[in-house]
Amino acid sequence: MITKEIVYKKAFEDKKNSLKERKMQYDMLMSSLYTTEPRLKEIEAGLSKVGAQLAITALSGDKKKIAALKSEASALGKEKKEIIKKAGIKEFKYECELCKDTGYVLGKICNCIKDKAGKIMLAEFSKQMPIKNCRFDNFDLKYYPSKGSNEGENPKRRMTGIFKACKEYVLNFSPETSKSLIFYGDAGLGKTHLTMAIVSGVIEKGYLPVYGSAENLFSIIEKEKFSGENKGSYEIMLDCDLLVIDDLGAEMATAFTKSVLYNLINTRILSGKPTIINTNLTMKKINEKYDARIASRIIGSYDPHLFLGVDVRQQKAIEKQEEF
Ligand SMILES: [Zn+2]
Questions:
Q1: Ligand 1 center–CA 168 separation, angstroms
Q2: Starting at the edge strand that comes first in sequence, how are the strands of the sheet with 242-248 ordered?
Q3: Residue 198: inside a domain, yes or no?
């Protein structure tokens, strides 16, 4: 399991290496230009001579002489630039002018590093799950009917609201202030799709979520606990910017997983960190399958979103068949 520290360390290293490489290439081009263009050396010598004279003249206050020296320096500088340009060498530029590729602005991590960290994380997450297929822009509301549902509510209207709420969730995401959510409803209604879109949006903002099915997350914790090989995954799940527990209820609930689940939910509520749970279970079923403490923590602290509609996966499968 990757941690924020690892990702940011890598982002800083990448930045440092890329700067070093680009500087080296530039220096090599320039030093070969100095051998083919002897005039450059003369200009260089002229520039330092003028510089020294300027420093002395500045003390005398002779404005006329200062102006003359300044214009001499600028003419030399211009000539130098032209020679370099003629040779086809582009001026050395930082990737990020804001931090001059140091990664820090006024003691704070620069946005260019956050962008880089986001990309590293996305690449890492894409290895584990189909994150690229589940985006906001390919979530299609046409699959949700405008009429009829068991709850007597318009599924399209409800899903449009949920879709908007998810986008806003990403827009305003903060590990300190964002609320925990529970997405519930029948299978195939887009719970995982929207959750993954949230996950990738949050990653793009430079945060580090942890995503997994309940079964996977619990089995990682179980293995690390009982094999004696603790990689700190449990701590990461307790502490990460956003924890996503997908498909809660599909796993075998044991006394161990129940206590882990309660601890994850409760600790993150106490530290004010957001969690998103997806489940096909109703609140009543959660109460029955786990225990009242878990259900009451969720009811008390999570924003519930009931997904309505007709199995989208089935509809898409039928569409595919009809194409042939
Ligand atoms: Zn920067």
A1: 27
A2: 209-213, 242-248, 275-279, 180-184, 302-306
A3: yes
